[in-house]
Amino acid sequence: MGFHHISVLFEECMQGLAIRPDGIYVDGTAGGAGHSRGIAERLGENGKLIAIDKDPDAVATATERLAEYPQAQVVHNDFSHIPAVLDGLGIDKVDGILLDLGVSSHQLDTAERGFSYNYDAPLDMRMSQTGLSAYDVVNTYSHGDLARILREYGEEKFASKIAANILKDREKAPIETTFQLVEIIKKSIPAAKRREGGHPAKRSFQALRIEVNGELERLGRCLDDAFDRLAPGGRFAIITFHSLEDRMVKQKFAAYCKGCTCPPDFPVCVCDNKPKAKLVNKKPIEAGEQEIQANNRSHCAKLRVLEKL
Known about the structure:
It contains 14 helices and eight strands. By secondary structure, it is of the alpha/beta class. The protein has two domains: 10-106 and 215-308, Rossmann fold, CATH 3.40.50; 115-213, DNA polymerase, domain 1. Strands 1, 2, 3, 4, 5, 6, 7 and 8 form an eight-stranded mixed beta sheet that branches. α8 crosses α9. The model has no long low-confidence stretch (mean pLDDT 95).
């Protein structure tokens, strides 16, 4: 199986996790196993890696590519279920967790998966290849729900117009392919605006993908649940690719690092709240010019790393 994916910020992730040879680590988004293999290579015989992915193609690829590492175990599941996966393996605490929240190159470049506006394919976008699809969203959601998704998840200024044209077109026949949807989006955006900010369908496709895969809900569940499973000194490293995800991670990490919550005018602390973690990097780590040239998809990646106290 040709599962192609270039791991972004690879060295930065390895350094951020501060991998110990005898540690236990979770890669919650194994994908093509690039990051997972980097972790496994740094583990000794007493170390352990749990590589998780919800995409059956990724699970098959990761199983093959990690076969030479006895410390590695591949699990078909979702990163929002990390505690359940660890419970099933009899593991209480881990020394590091990595999440790469980007869509893999394999998913984008496999036309029939329906993630990309660059290929004509059935509307799909399901990372797990099961459940709600982009076809279902486009052909069954109300105008209000479609507009909300496009506005909130895609930050699309013309969300209402696009939603209206989707409903108008689907009255004639179901909207079945990516290119059908691209044409609806294009005719909904004024010509002058279509020439700004890249492909005119980029924001809408992002919004639909987030809705189909419940990406923000999954991330929200994972942040607290996964943090609780870190051992003291454990690292939590997360790579985000758009502002909605990054804002969630930034705010949650800041909350973990916040100590006293007493009003500023209190002379002494009475809440006795102490920080649960510290930031490893004050600002997000971004790809350098060399990496961006080698892999254009890394240009919007941001890595934040936290250490549990």
